[in-house]
Amino acid sequence: MAGAPLFTAISTSAKQLHTLLKCIAFSQRAEVQITQSGIRFSVEEARVVQGLTFLDKALFSTYSLNLNDDEHSLRPFSISIVALLETLQIFGIAEASSSSRNPYGGISSSYGNAFSAPALALGGTCRISYQEVGAPLTITIQEGSVTTTCEMNTYEAHEQYEDDGGIPLDRDSLCLKAIMQSTWLHDAITELSGTNPTVLVLSASSRSAPYFALEGEGGPFGDSTVDFLPESKNEPTPTGTRGKKQPLVTETFSVAAPSEGHSRIRQRYKFEMIKRAGRAMALGSKVSIRQDQQGVLSLQFMIDLGDGANSGPRRDEKNAAAPPSPGSVAFVDFRFVPLIGDDDDAETETESDVNSDGHEGTQ
């Protein structure tokens, strides 16, 4: 008779798990790492874009991981994220439509309606268990008296990145940090999509306008640009002042000089890869935009999961001091590798920005 499984977790809402995992389901496989703090899912494409989401143990009503004293996590493995999502919605979890999108991010309370079949199935519980290393990952969904169990094959994980398991982002040498409502970024990317560009150019400076701009290049209908207005509408550019400006829509904004003699950063990314984060942009309430000196871009979205989640502090191995969330929230992080070899990465200006103050994250 089999002994107790290595890992067991029970969630009272399969919808919350489905919402987070759907944000990063742009590839067939997801790598999974189970830790004492929660479950990390990672999906990548061509080693140039990666989506990560962390299911904090606070999202589960029961969370049990049996490890040896010298272990902190189970060996990573990969599964089919497509099969996992199909299992989670087996009782008909409704997709968020454009009409249910909250303008401030997340999903509005009018998610479906009381008379639709999908709305009746949102209360299902989900049990995740992992018997032993190499065993299938077992998902059990229960709705009323109906129970469905699915065993998904697990596979050996690919070679892991260093740092936190993601495309390396050098937090000690960030040249851009900004926090804004996710809806502003989503609307900008949607606007640029109209010209079907191949490249997204991110341009930022704290010394001269435009302070923050996104450009779409290479499309068949021409190039387009979205400029975020400066903090002072009556003074679009600083005149004779050493004070730093920031876009009106940002809560936090700082630009550090990428190199001596330069104060503007200008980096290029493949537009199709940026669009992989579109779902998280639409659902997120806030987004933290970070770029390091090598051009690696991080978009971290804070997603409100609604009233039904188990609220609690965010547990992040890389940010142990993260404060408790006022409600139930989760984070989805996308990393992008820049395009290189085309155009200048920086524009020369007379003064360099050396201020890197500001918070690092959306908490």
UniProtKB/TrEMBL annotation:
Pfam families: Rad1. It is an enzyme of class 3 (hydrolase). It is found in: Nucleus. One of its GO terms (molecular function) is double-stranded DNA 3'-5' DNA exonuclease activity. Keywords: DNA damage, DNA repair, Hydrolase, Nucleus. Residues 342-354 have a biased composition (Acidic residues). Belongs to the rad1 family. This is Checkpoint clamp complex protein Rad1.
